[in-house]
Amino acid sequence: MKKAIKRLFRSNYLFTAGVIICLFWIFAAILAPVIAPYDPIVQDLTIRLQPPSASHIFGTDNFGRDIFSRVIYGGRYSLLAGCLTVVIAGALGTFYGAIAGYVGGKADNIMMRFSEMILSFPSLILAMIINAVLGSNLFNTMFALVIVAWPTYARLMRSVVLSVKENEYVTASEALGASKLRILLKEVIPNSISSVLIMATTDLGNQILMFSTLSFLGLGSAPPTPEWGMMVSEGVDYFNKFWVSGFPGLAIFTMAIGANFIGDGMRDLLDPKLRKQF
Amino acid sequence: MKKRLLAALLCALMALGLTACGGSADTEPAEGADAAATETTDADGGNRTVVVAMGSGFSTLDPGRVYEKYPPMIVNACYENLFKFNSNDGEAEPSLAESYEFSEDGMTLTVKLREATFASGNPVTSADVMFSINRCKNLQDNPSFICDTIESMEAPDDLTVVFHLTQPDSAILSKLTYSSLAVLDSEVVKEHGGTDAEDAVTADTASDYLNTTSAGSGMYVMTSYIPDSEIVLEANPNYWRQATNVDKYIIKIQPDSNTQMMGLSTGDIDVAMNMTDDTMAELQSAENVELINAPTKTVGFVMMNMDESIGGPVANPDVQQAIRLALDYAGIQTIVGEGCVTPYSVIQDGFMGSKGVRETSYQDIEAAKQLLADAGYADGLDVDLTVCDLDMEGVALTDLAQKVKEDLAQIGINVNIVSQAWAAGYGDAYREGTIPLTVMYWGTDYNDPNVQLEFLPGETVGLRAAWTAEMNPELNAKYAEAMNATDNDARIAVLEEIQDMMYEDGPFVFIAQAPAHIGFNTRLDGVAISDPYALDLTLINIK
Which of A52, A139, B113, B127 could form a disulfide bond with B159, CB atoms 3.0-4.6 angstroms apart? Predict the structure, then answer.
């Protein structure tokens, strides 16, 4: 495995680039108070809508706030929302799908129809409705994203579990008298998890985009929180001041593409069927 | 390697696409304007056609039904009313009316008409006036409420109309200027299915006709109307008064302000109604273009709930006054844009009887802190500010909320902004008066200061801040007083009293009047922002 990872880094430049980009944003988010030259929220109307310059390298926005500082702080929300959504939705979907697949029968049928019911709604609209009803803040946005995202994991997990549970080591465990829960936790899930992991890493970029989309539509934290999506939407009124929405847009772009590169690399590493010839 | 090549190719393609977009926009002249330029030229070879671009279409041009922002511009050019606003900050002046008189008790208004003619050649008579007003009333469409205070009318002779009112109404002259009460050529409209009978709501079929042409006594006649695209107005050959020297108007519906800006700079458009701060900056140096920024009567305000169980600390009058003192009015004007002003109090700058603007030097942080300390909040306080997703003439309310948050932080009030969609609960909560603190805006239904009386305690908007009549009976009594004051001097006096009483008291802080931005070609004279008509086409001349 270690060898494989090393090989992956050396041979898959995109994966390496993805890791570098993501590490960059993670560090930026953690060290935001150190890196950011200004307070991301404090306004100064005397310098509003200034183009990029030495003192404000990304320029300033409508309220004279430093866009560079806001972009740096904004990484926190995007990363937090993206990672938490994937982890929670992934965990939820994994257990749900594993139970459905392993138990089978009527329970499987009911559980899967329920998850399909959620899947049948257009995901963005569903997330918007949940957000609008609950009120929009960071927590509710993540909640909405999780609600929309988990059924996909559940379906994937169920399909993998259906084939894994036919393996002889599962039958052997059953013969040894292991409880169903034990078999599920010790045999079935560990042997099915890799496909969920692949999906989670590719999904990270999607979730970050989705979160930005919602916050662009005004359904995220309330202003003046420096969320990237919201910053982009604040800039659309300033058509020929590219820096107002351009830099946060670039941040979303790099973050999403970095996460996608990692996802691709992970798939190459973990999915034997797709494994490249190194 | 292949992947990288692909990425590079993609980048190149995108760059190409961008330059292509920029290029095509520059080289795309509006062919309509060119065609128009060759159509009507005077003896000197000068162009007597004016092209106007405006931001949004509308559902109807039937005067009896119009209620949207832009139709009054067309109606004002093609029809005339008994009264008219000749300037943006004046009072209603006689137009088709020659003189008017209120009865002693304010319950009767007698209007003498001028001898005028419609575009069809028919004379304008009192029967036409009654027909038009009754039709608007009986169509029971959006603007019918404007006739609510008109009980009945009678016509002692051809040139006199007597209005019997349900109550004294000091706004009646302003209401009579409203496009819905434009005087129609009753003969022509009846021919095309129009009726003013009580069953007009179902029996009247003249709207289709009035959407293709006009039937008024105005300076222009509408010759073509393509919904959401273009309206053509041509000079009325039978106009009974002195007309301007513009022969023809082509009004284009062109929502994008960048398109308008480009048309204006190339000369394809003569008047652009929807400029923005950003597009204006582009034209600052253009020689053939002049820009106007002026406040409209759409006003943004901070509303604090008077009910302590809802508003908490902001229900306290001292806290309310501290908030009023803490706001940075100059900064708010910067955010709202060029041409924005802060009204003195409840009545917008520009209305008859308005006390003008609140000085930006009104801000006094020290005094505000002192007031807060006196109210028992020396250590500051936390409060939620709910804001919805609407915008005030292009300025997002969340932008205003962010500015208010920043300003209040200076006196130790920690504002937590909560955003809630209008459709997802905000609208209901706002109307029911259950929001503790909010930033909202208010557009006027018709051009009269009386619309602002709704902000008084016990009235529609006042109650949205849980401001009941009992909380300030003296101010509440001014409502009736202002409604009854048909004499202009008395009216101004009571309006000024109201403004003074609300200058430093009450749950509303009026923070900004949204500006309108118009750009126009310097060959025109008389272009001005107009609240009642958006743009008064009858005042524009070609130099």
Answer: B113
Measured between alpha carbons, how far is B206 from B204 in angstroms, rounded to an integer? 6
pTM of this prediction? Answer: 0.81
CA distance B514 to B300: 7
Question: DSSP strand E in B305-409: where?
Answer: 381-387, 391-392, 395-396
Pick the CATH number of A7-32+66-270 from 1.10.3720.10, 3.20.20.70, 1.10.10.1100, 2.60.410.10: 1.10.3720.10
pLDDT at B42 exceeding the cut of 70:
no
Complex confidence, ipTM: 0.81
Calculated CA dihedral for residues B395, B384, A73, A19, nearest 10 degrees? -100
Q: What is the pLDDT of residues B58-102, one digit of tens each?
A: 889 999 999 888 899 999 999 999 999 998 888 899 999 999 999
Return phi, psi of residue B247, to 5°: -85, -30
Query: Helix H segments across B337-442?
Result: 365-374, 397-409, 427-432
* Residue B139: band (very low, low, confident or very high) from pLDDT cuts 50, 70, 90: very high
Give dist(CA B69, CA B84) in Å, integer. 17
pLDDT at residue number B90: 81
Size of interface A-B (CB pairs under 8 A): 59
**Strand order of the sheet with strand B413-419?**
B220-226, B230-235, B248-253, B49-54, B271-272, B508-521, B289-304, B437-442, B381-387, B413-419
Euclidean distance between CA atoms B334 and B245, whole angstroms: 38
B258·A239 Cβ contact <8 A: yes
Look at the block and give the residue holding tokens 């919201």.
A230
Phi, psi of B170 (to 5 degrees): -70, -10
| pLDDT score of B336 more than 80 | yes
- Read out DSSP for A52-116? S-SSSTT-B-TTS-BHHHHHHHHHHHHHHHHHHHHHHHHHHHHHHHHHHHHH-HHHHHHHHHHHH
Domain-wise residue ranges, chain A: 7-32+66-270
User: Looking at the partner chain, which of B276, B279, B424 has a beta carbon nearest the beta carbon of A133?
Assistant: B424
Distance CA B132, CA B62 (A): 11
DSSP B180: G
- Out of A136, A224, A239, the one facing B278 most closely (by C-beta) is A239
Contact list in A for residue B416 (CB cut-off 8 A) is 222
DSSP letters, A142-201, are: HHHHHHHHHHHHHHHHHHHHHHHTTSHHHHHHHHTT--HHHHIIIIIHHHHHHHHHHHHH
Q: What is the pLDDT of residue B389?
A: 85
Residue B281, burial from CB neighbour count under 10 angstroms (0-12, 13-18, 19+):
middle
**Which domains are delineated in chain B?**
32-288+522-542 (3.40.190.10), 294-516 (3.10.105.10)
Burial B298-337 (b: 16+ CB within 10 A, else e): bbbbbbbbbbeebbbbbbbbbbbbbbbbbbbbebbbbbbb
Phi, psi of B98 (to 5 degrees): -100, -45
CB contact under 8 A, A136 and B420: yes
Residues of A in contact with B262 (CB under 8 A): none
Neighbour tally for B536: CB within 10 Å: 22
Exposed, middle or buried: residue B38 (CB in 10 Å: 0-12, 13-18, 19+)? exposed
Ranges B272-286, B293-307, B353-367: which has the least confidence: B272-286
CA separation for the pair B529, B298 (Å, rounded):
13
The DSSP H or E segment spanning B506 is none
- Amino acid (one-letter) located at B374: D
Reduce the DSSP state of residue B419 to 3 states and report it. Answer: strand
Is residue A86 within 8 Å of residue A200, measured between CB atoms? yes
Across residues B454-468, what is the average pLDDT? 93
